[in-house]
Fold this protein.
Amino acid sequence: MTDSAPIRAVGHREDPAPHPKRTGTTTSIGGKGYRSSIAGVCAIALLVCAAACTPSPAKTTNSGSGAAAAAPAPVSADDAREIAADTYTYAYPLVLTELTRRASMQKAPMNQFENLRAFPDANFTRVVRPNADTLYSSLWFDVSKEPLAIRIPSSGERYHLFEMMDMWTDVFASPGSRTTGNQEQTIVLAAKGWNGELPAGALLIHSPTLTGWIVGRTQTNGTPDYPEVHKFQDGLIATPLSQFGKQYTAPKTAIDPAWDVQTAPVEQIEKMSPQQYFGLFAELMKVNPPHDNDSPMLQRMARIGIEAGRSFSLAAAPPEARQALEAAPATTLGAIKSSVTKSAVPQNGWRTWMTGIGTYGTDYRARARIAFAGLGANTIEDAIYPTAFTDGNGKPFTSDGRYMLHFANNQIPPVRGFWSLTMYNEGQFFAANPINRYAIGDRDKLHFNPDGSLDLYIQRDSPGADKESNWLPAPATGPFSMNLRMYWPKPQVLSGDWTPPPVTRIE
């Protein structure tokens, strides 16, 4: 999600947010471990728990309506089924994000960065559709007690962004190259309504929820570039505002022993009972109030007994509501999954998500779809991810075929950041190949044609020594798919005036 995201087979898409195995405050990749939900490097998650399972922010009963609650209207069986399905969809991102947060606490405490230090390789199978373009820096924040001061060092000419999401997965800020620039900067992240004194030159950003997620992505030009990126990551500092400029050691975050941190969050959700799912959702709304424009949805939910700021008991719900809520997971989750492929715009064999990414308003179906397909996805202004499972004639890619992606000289992906083409095998992981190349793009030493056009060769065997600079190896066997990643796309991409050319099969 990236991050408009590719389609998932198991676990999560990559670009959203990573949760590989970590030691201390750095992350190493490799070995066996969990798989994240589809499209997005998310993490792992848990069973259910009550309010004590969430961080310690003060509770609120804000319903988002701004008016005294009236008695909900009686509900028919048909209405109850529809409202229950809509409620399941509305709740999905919040529940999924909380499960992901819980899993992350075994890697780094709240309000501290966790830095991914290396790319995945062909042995990495914990997260589908990983990337080989950026190293991640992830931070789960809690600003219930006081604001969080974040120092981002200068990145020089290096592209970076720090996507900030509330617990509903809406992106409310993206400090970095595109928005705030590459210079050193201090950001004070605070709860809504906080207006205290700031350090000199600091940028104040208010979070819609007391807890949330920051996903940093730093351009990494291949493995030789690791040391420079590590220096940048090591310069990331987060402290409570009262400790800004002082030596500070973050306390560990308590982990409930009942939490299942070995199973991907999407899989955990599928195993939840209706009481677990809707009960956790109700508890989470106490500390993560709905958005102000959610009033119609809150009024509908109240008709089946679910109210923001109050615990929920399925057993106490009216019979029609109880039956509808018990049936909702089986029918609604399938609809969320199937909508992933239906929602993307198909062009030349590529499918691209151009709307409903990162900022959703009241489009709760889009928000749930992207949470499932790419938790942590960027807004399209920061990155888009055209995905190809077929050639330009609609025929699925096969490893025994030879293909070419030809960019005319005026068709090279127009970006302010960078672009790459990434290969995935049938399992949506990197494919082992003789040159250990899993992606190719503008930071590689590509050979351009005399007229400025570019040919990329996509096949399992070498296209010849004179063409290997432009070769993206395919898997040894089976079908495959690809992602074209475009960071900081130019206006012609966002307007739809530029589209990826078709991949053609070489006969």
Notes: The two ends are 34 Å apart (CA to CA). Residues 1-14, 18-68 have pLDDT under 50 and may be disordered. The helical segments are 77-104, 226-234, 265-271, 274-287, 295-302, 319-343, 364-374, 491-494.
